Amino acid sequence: MIMTLPFSILHWSLALILAPLLPGIINRTKAWFGGRRGQPLPQAYHDLHKLLRKGAVYSRTTTGIFRLGPVLGLAIVMVALALVPAGALGAPLAFRGDFIFLAYALGLMRFTTVLAALDTGSAFAGMGASREVQFALLAEAALLSGLAVLAAGTGQFSLSGISARLWPPDLHQGGASVLLVAAAVLIVMLAENARIPVDDPTTHLELTMIHEVMVLDHGGVDLAFIQYGAALKLWLFAAIFTGLAIPLRTGRPVLDLGVTVVGIFLTAVAIGVIESTMARLRLLRVPQLLVVALALSLAAFFWTVR
Amino acid sequence: MLLSVVVVPVVLGFLALLVPAHGPRRGLLLAGSAAHAAAVGFALVRTPPLRPGAWIGVDATGLLFLAITSVLFAAVAVYTSGYLGRESGRVVRDAEEGFSFSNKPEAVFVACLLFFLAAMSLVCISRDLGLLWVAIEATTLVSAPLISFHRHHRSLEATWKYLLICSVGIAMALLGNYFLAFAGHGRVHLKLEDLLTHAAALDPIWLKAAFIMLLVGYGTKMGLAPMHNWLPDAHSEAPSMVSTLLSGALLNCAFLGILRGHAVLQAAGLGRFSGDLLIFFGLLSMAVAAVFLIRQTDYKRMLAYSSIEHMGILSLGVGIGGLAGSGAMLHALAHSLTKGMLFLCAGQLLHFYSTKTAADVRGALHRLPLTGLLWLAGLLAITGSPPFGLFISELTILQGTLASGRWAVAVGYLAALGIIFIAMARIVLPMVFGRDDQVEPAAGTAAARPREALWYALPALALGSGSLLLGLYVPASAWHFLNRAAQLAGGY
Amino acid sequence: MNALLEILILIVALTDFRLLASSRLATLIDTMVFQALALSVIPLSLTAAPWPWRLMTLVLMTLAVKGVVLPWLLHRAMRTVDVQREIEPFLGFSSSVLLGIVLLGLSFLIVRPLPVTASPGAGSLLAGALFTILTGLVIIISRRKALTQVVGYLSLENGVYACGAALAVEEPLLVEMGVLLDVFVAVFVMGITIHQINREFDHIDTDRLAELKD
After folding, report:
1. Which of 284-303 (A) contact C at CB < 8 A?
2. What is the pLDDT of residue C28?
3. Chain B residue with Cα closest to C187
4. CA A34 to CA A261: how far, in whole Å?
5. For a 10 Å CB count at each end of chain C, is N or C smaller?
6. Residues C193, B141: C-beta atoms closer than 8 Å
7. Is C193 in Cβ contact with B159 (below 8 Å)?
C-alpha cells in the first residue's frame, strides 16, 4: 500500500486535471452522431478559464448560503474523488466502510446544491430541487445496495479492497452479480450526472430541467466551481463503472492506472452514444427507470447470498 | 377397441365441421353418442385388463366416470338435436336485457361437443398422468367455444373467466406433475402403475408438494372453493345442455385427476395428509355454496352453486375414505344424473318464461306440467331427500364420517346440507307452485298448454328416473363396483 | 454450475423484471418470447453433449412453437383488436417492479430448504422458475387488457416449463408434444375469444367485464 501511494495520489491528480475533458468527449461523440464537427475537446477548460475571470451578480434575496454552496460542493467532490480506486490500485484515502462515506458525500454535495437553489426563492429552482431530490431517493438506494452487494460478495468493506478482489470473480458467487451491479451503476450514473435519458443537459426550457435549473442563478466563479464539480462527479462515477465493467487487474499500478483512465474515456464515449441514440424519458417514467436500477442491485444481492 | 371412445368422436367431430347440412350433422352427433355408449357398455360387460406400461386402460374409477359421461352425453345428444332444430337460424332475444343476439355457427358447436366427449373420455382412460394433464387442458379449450354459443357480452365474459382461470389452474397441476416426477428421482415414470408400485420409494416432501399443486390445479377445474369463481358464471351463461355436460361430466373428470394423486399418496402412506386436505376443501366448498345460495335470485346460478356444493361433498367423501369413499362414488353418479335433469328443465323454463330470475317464474307446474314436476323432483333429489339416489349416497358418506370418528366434520356437513336445502327450497318452491299472473288464454286454444317436446322430455325423464332408481335399489354388484372404484381412488 | 446456466438464469430474471415494468404490448410479447427461447435452451445446458435426438427434437419443437407460432398469433391478435399499451393497470409499473424484487427474494427463500439434487445449480434455476411463475400471476392479476393476461399466462407456462427443466424431469416425448400442442391451442382459442370480446364490447379491458356477479 505504501509503495503504491504515490500512484494513488497520481490517480487523484490526474482526475483533477483531466476531468473537464469528459464533457468535451461526450459533446464530440454527440456531434459525430449529428454529422457535425463539434466543440474542440478542451472547450471545458476554456469555459472554466473564462468564468473564473468573470464577476457575478448576487440577488438581494440570497444569503451567504448561496455563495457557500458551490464552494462546499466542489470541496466535497474533491474529497470523495480521493476514495475512488483505479483497478487494483487503491485510493489515497481508502478506509473501512468508505463506500458508505462516498454515498453520503454525494448526498451532501446534492444537499448543498439544493440548499443554494432554494436560497434564491425562485420557483423554478424549487421545482428542480424537488425533482432532483425525488430521483435521488431511488438513485441513492440503488447505488448503496449495489455497493453493498459487492462488499458482501468480496468480503471487503473498502472500495479499494472491493475493486482489487472483484475480478476474476469467484465462480460460486458468479460474475453475474457484478454485471447486474454494473448495469445499476450505469443507470445511477446517468441519473446523478443529469444525462439523457434522465435529464437533458442541453435543454433551455426550465420546465424540462432537473439539474440545470438549480444552477441557473449562479454566475462567474460560482458557475465555474459548479461545472468543474460536475465534471469531477462524472469522473468519479465513470471510475466506479469502469472498475466494475472492465475485467482487468494487472498487479502493476501504472498499467492499472492507464487502463482505468482509458476506461473512463471510453465510458464518456458510451454516455455520448447513449445520449445520441435515446430520447429523454417522460418525467413520470424516470422513477420507474430508477426502480429498475434498484431491482437490478437487489437481484444481484439475492444472487450473491442465495 | 378402448381408444375408439376417443377416436370415433374426434373423427365425427371433424366430419361435422365439413358436412354442410344441418340434419346429417345432428345425425353425426347422435351417431357419436351411440358409438361411445356401445363401447362403454362393452367395456362394462367385459372389462379389458390393464396392460402394464400402457398409456390407456380402464380401472373401476375410470370406467365409472366414463359411463357417467356416456349416459349424460346420450341425453345431451338427443336434447341438442331437437334444440338446434328449434334455435337454428333464429334471431334470439336475450332473456334478461332484451337485446338480440345470434348464435355461433352450428357446425362449430356440434364439432366442439364431439371433441369435448373425446377429451373427457381420454381423461377417464388415461393411465399416464402426463396424458391426463393434456386431456384435461384439452377439455378446457374445446368447451370454451361451447359456453359462448349465445354470442353476447355476458357469455363472452363468462368464457374469458373460464378460459383464463382454468388454464392457470391447470398450469399449476402441470407443476404438480413435475414435482411428482421429481419425487421418483427420475427412476419412476408418471404411469399410474409405476407410481403405485414404487410409491414407498418416492420422496415424501415432493409427494406432498405435488399433491398440493394437483389439488389446487385440478381443484380449480373442479370448482372447489376458493378457486370456484368462474363456475357460476360459466355454468349459468352456457346453454343448458352444455351446462349439463360441464356440471355432470367435466367436474367429475377434473376430480379424477385429483383422485389419481390421492391414490399415489395413499399408496405411499401419506393418505392422511391428502385426505385431510380434501376434507378441508370439501367443507369449504360446501360452506361457500351455502352462503351464496341464501340470497340467490338466478335459478341457473343456483344450480351452479349446487354443483360446487356437491363437488365439495365428493371431495369430503373421498377424503374421509372407507365407506364414505364408496358413498362418494355413488354420489358422483347420482349427482350427475340429477344435475343433468335439472339443467335441462332450467333450459325449458328459460325458453318459456324468458327470464332467469327465479322470482319471475311462477306456476311452472301449471304451465309446463312435466317440467314443473321434474323441477320439483329435482329439488328434492339434489338436496338429498329420499327416495332419490343422492339421499343414499349422502347418508353413506355421513355414516362413513361418523364411523371414522370425525364429529366436527359431520356437524359441518349436516349444517351445510341443511342450509342449502332451505335456501334452494325457498327459491324453487314458489317457482313450481304459486299462481301465474299472466292472463290464462281461453281453454282449448293451442297456446294454452305449450307442448313439451319429445327431444326434451325423453332425456330429462330418463335422467330423472335414473336418479330415482338409484335411490330405490342399488344392486350388490353395483355396490361391489363402487367399492372397487373408491378403493382405487385412494380409499382404504 | 456452468456459465451458460448462470447467464440463462440471469436472463430469466431480467426478462421477468422487463415484463413487470413494460406497458407496451409489443414489448411484453417480445420479452415473453425471448424468455421462452432462453428457457428452451436450458435442457441443453444441463445435459452434456452429444445430445440425444429426443432432446434435440423437443428443443426444436419448442423453439418452433414458442419462437415462431405463438408470437405470430399474439401479434396478429394485437393488430386485430388494435391495442398497443396497457394504460392503467391495477398495480403501477414501479410498484410492480418493487413487488418483483420482493417475489425474487421470496423465491430464493422458498427454494433454499428444498432438497433439489437434480444437478448443480438446479436450486438457483428452480428459484428463477418460481419467480417467473409468480411474475406471470402478478401480470394476470394486475393488468386490465385481456391480451396482457394472455402474455402473463404464457409467462406462467414458461416458469412451469423451467421448473420441469430444473428438476430434470424426463417426460415421454408424446406428453411434451401434447403440452406444447395444448399451449398452442390455448393461445389460439384465447385469441379468438379476445377477438369476439373486442367485436362485442369494443374494448378488451377485463375489469369492465364485470356484469356477472352475486
Report:
1. 287-288, 291-292, 294-296, 298-299, 302-303
2. 93
3. B141
4. 26
5. C
6. no
7. yes
CB B163 within 8 A of CB C189: yes
Among B157, B179, B182, select the one facing C209 at the smallest CB separation: B157
% of chain C residues with pLDDT over 70: 99
pLDDT of residue B139: 95
Structure confidence by residue, pLDDT tens digits, B293-352: 998 899 999 999 999 999 999 999 999 988 899 999 999 999 999 999 999 999 988 888
As a whole number, the mean pLDDT across chain B is 88
Contact B365, B105 (CB under 8 A): no
Q: Please say if the pLDDT value at position B83 is more than 80.
A: yes
Other CB atoms within a 10 A radius of the CB of residue B89 amount to 11
Instruction: With beta carbons under 8 A apart, name residues in chain C contacting A302.
Output: 104-105, 108
**If pLDDT is split at 50, 70 and 90, which confidence band does A154 have?**
confident
Q: How would DSSP label each residue in C69-108?
A: IHHHHHHHHHHHHT--B--S-SS-HHHHHHHHHHHHHHHH
In the structure, what pLDDT confidence band is assigned to residue A170 with cuts at 50, 70 and 90? low
> Letter for the amino acid at A15?
A
Q: Which residues of C23-51 are buried (b: 16+ CB within 10 A; e: fewer)?
A: bebeebbbbbbbbbebbbbbbbbbeeeee
Q: List the chains bordering chain A where 3 or more Cβ pairs fall under 8 Å.
A: C
Task: Indicate the pTM of the whole model.
Answer: 0.89
By C-alpha distance, the chain B residue nearest C162 is B175
Q: Which positions in chain C touch B190 (Cβ < 8 Å)? A: 171, 175
> So what's the pLDDT on residue B436?
67
Maximum distance among all Cα pairs of chain C, rounded to whole angstroms: 59
> In DSSP terms, which residues pair with C205 in a beta bridge?
C145
Q: Is residue B437 predicted with pLDDT exceeding 80? A: no
CA distance B143 to chain C (A): 10
ipTM, 2 dp: 0.92
Query: C151 lies in which domain range?
Result: 3-211
Give me the pLDDT at residue A305, please: 80
CB proximity list for B397: less than 8 A, separation 6 or greater: B313, B316, B317, B320, B324, B327, B328, B331, B413
* C119 contacts chain B (CB < 8 A): no
CB pairs under 8 A between A and C: 46
* Residue A129 burial (CB count, 10 A): 22
Touch C-A: 3+ C-beta pairs under 8 A? yes
Residue C88 zone, left/alpha/beta (φ > 0; ψ -120 to 50; rest): beta
- Assigned C-alpha cell, B348: 325449458
- Choose from C6, C11, C94, C124 for mutation: most chain A CBs within 10 A: C94
DSSP states of C141-200: HH--BHHHHHHHHHHHHHHHHHHHHHTT----HHHHHHHHHHHHHHHHHHHHHHHHHHHH
Q: Are B471 and B385 in contact (CB under 8 A)?
A: no
The total number of structural domains in chain C stands at: 1
End-to-end CA distance of chain C: 53
Q: How far is CA B130 from CA B138, B140, B249, in A?
A: 12, 16, 20
Grid cell of B169 as nine digits? 389452474
User: Which alpha helices (DSSP H) does A95-174 contain, by range?
Assistant: 98-119, 123-154, 159-166
Give DSSP secondary structure letters for B218-252. HHHHHT-TTS-THHHHHHHHS-HHHHHHIIIIIHH
Lookup: cell for B143: 368447451
Per the CB < 8 Å rule, is C214 touching B232? yes
Angle between helical axes of B153-183 and B204-222 (0-180°, round to 10): 170
In chain C, count of helices (H) and strands (E)?
9, 0
Contact C186 B137 (CB under 8 A): yes
What are the residue boundaries of the structural domains of chain A, listed by start?
Answer: 5-305
Distance from CA of C101 to the nearest CA of A (A): 6
Closest partner residue to C101 among A179, A287, A295, by Cβ? A295
